[in-house]
Amino acid sequence: MLRSSLCYVRLVTTPKRFLKHKRPGDKMIPPPHSISLTVVGNGRAGSSKSMLIDTGVCRYLVNCGESTQRVLAEYRMKTSRIQHVFLTRMSWDCTSGLLGVALTAKAAGVKKLTIHGPTELEHLMQLTRPFTDCKTTDIVMSEIHEKYYTDDAFRVQSFQIFKPTNVNEEPVYKRRKENLGNVSESSVFIYYFQPFRTRRKLIMSKFNEACIPASVLKSGEIQAVINGENLILSDGRIISPDEVTVPSPPSKNMLFVDCRILITFLHLYPMNTFSILFKPRSLVEI
C-alpha cells in the first residue's frame, strides 16, 4: 500500500543551553543557525497539506488537517516543541487535526499554544476547549491579521486574500444551498516568514593569527566580536570583526501560499513585483 504523505527530514543540532520549552519572559536567545522545513503531507488522498518548521528551539506547524498528528508520530517528529500553528483557511482540510495537536501539546507539557489564522478560529477553539482541558496548556488566538508576529527566529506577516467576485454571478438568495457553506473559505491567509540573520561566525585560524589571548575566547568579550562590535584587548589593540569573523550567510525567506488561490495571487501582483518581493526558491505551495 503506497503512502500518500511525503516527509523530508533534516537533522537539526540544538545547543544544550537552549530550553526545551521557551516560556514568555525568558531571556532572548540568538537566532538559530539552522532551520529545517518538513513536508508532513502533500495534500493527496488520505493526507493533509501540512508543513513543519523546526528551528531547534521552537516548531511551527502550517495547517493542521486530519491525520497530521498520526504522521508526526509515525515519522518520529516530536510535537513537544510545537508552540505555533498557522492556518491558511477556515476549512476541514486545515483545521480537523487541531484538536489532536492540542492534546499532544498538553501531554508534552507545552505551556502555551498560539493559533494564527482567520478570526472564526476563536469560536472553534471555544467549542473544543472542554475537550483539551486547558488547565496545563494555554491555547490562545493571535492578532497576526492586525500586526506581524515576531519571536527569536522569525518575523511573520500575514496577507489576507479574498476570492474575486464575478459581476455575472447570481445573487446569494438564488444560489444553491450547498454553496452557502463555502462562505468561510472565500478568504485565505498567506504567511511570509522572514528569518533573522544569525550572528557572525568566528574563524579560529584568524583568531590565532591575531595573537589574541585564549582567555578572551573563554570570556564574554568574544561575544562583542560575534555581534559585530570591535574588541579592545588589554594591550590597547583594537580587533575589528572582519579580522577574526565572517558574516553569516543570509537566510532564505519562506512564503506559504494556498495553491487554490495561487493563480489569483499572481494575477493581483505582476510577475516582476512577485519576483522582487519573494524569490521563487522560497515559494512553498500548500
UniProtKB/TrEMBL annotation:
Claim: RNA-binding is one of the keywords in the record: no
GO biological process: mitochondrial tRNA 3'-end processing
Key word Membrane present: no
Cofactor entry: Zn(2+)
Entry's Gene Ontology molecular function annotations: 3'-tRNA processing endoribonuclease activity; metal ion binding
EC nos: 3.1.26.11
UniProt-listed InterPro entries: RibonucZ/Hydroxyglut_hydro (IPR036866), RNZ2-like (IPR047151), tRNase_Z_dom (IPR027794)
CC per GO annotation: mitochondrion
tRNase Z endonuclease domain mapped to chain residues: 59-97
Top-level taxon in the UniProt lineage: Eukaryota
Keyword list, A-Z: Endonuclease, Hydrolase, Metal-binding, Nuclease, tRNA processing, Zinc
Assigned protein family: Belongs to the RNase Z family.
Protein name, as recorded: ribonuclease Z
Organism from which the protein derives: Schistosoma mattheei
